[in-house]
Design a protein that fits this description.
This protein has 176 residues and is an alpha+beta fold. It folds into 2 domains: 38 residues; 124 residues, Rieske Iron-sulfur Protein. The protein contains 3 helices and 11 strands; from the N terminus they run H-H-E-H-E-E-E-E-E-E-E-E-E-E. Bound molecules: FE2/S2 (inorganic) cluster.
């Protein structure tokens, strides 16, 4: 028995239509996959932690703030570091506690960094550990001068880690 469909659409045409349908669906699938994976291949500007950060105030203003505040560390919370008036210059201390990673605040009344999670204490000008369960001082971000401005590399992969909990002059990258 010959079906009506076979009469209206000959076999060769049906095959063509099926092929076109298949190609259309395959094209759609490829387009959807591209839309899903495209963001992973796009290079976007790093804006938060990990960025090269230019400190808004010039170096001279930072030094003036240290002079006026008995060297109180200056917090840049959006970039998770303190500028500290280290012996002989300026350093950038990553505020992540080296114990279990809490954000370490500077305690003005104690004049030292005091992690409230488990009571690790870090010294004001070096950010080295003075007591508590943390294994060593706060890590330092790399820092450099560009004109009168300071640029801090907040990439955690480039940290200066002080496992011996000692101050190292070679870690001082900005004099002042
Ligand atoms: S996380 Fe700071 S002392 Fe434990």
């Amino acid at each position: 028995m010959i079906r009506v469909q076979d009469e209206v659409v000959p076999r060769a045409h049906r095959r063509q239509l099926l092929r076109l349908g298949f190609l259309g669906l395959a094209g759609l699938a490829v387009t959807e996959m591209a839309a899903v994976f495209a963001p992973f291949f796009r290079v976007t500007r790093i804006a938060g932690l990990g960025a090269q950060v230019t400190v808004p105030e010039p170096k001279s203003a930072i030094l003036a703030r240290f002079a006026a505040s008995n060297d109180e560390p200056i917090l840049y919370s959006q970039w998770r570091f303190f500028l500290i008036h280290a012996p002989g210059g300026i350093a950038a201390a990553y505020r992540k506690c080296t114990h279990l990673g809490c954000a370490v605040p500077f305690n003005k009344s104690e004049d030292q960094f005091h992690c409230v999670c488990h009571q690790s204490i870090y010294e004001k000008r070096t950010a080295l550990l003075t007591s508590g369960p943390a294994p060593h001082g706060l890590d330092l971000f790399r820092i450099r001068e560009e004109g009168d401005h300071l640029v801090v590399d907040t990439n955690p992969l480039n940290l200066l880690v002080r496992e011996d909990n000692k101050w190292h002059d070679e870690h001082l990258e900005v004099q002042g």
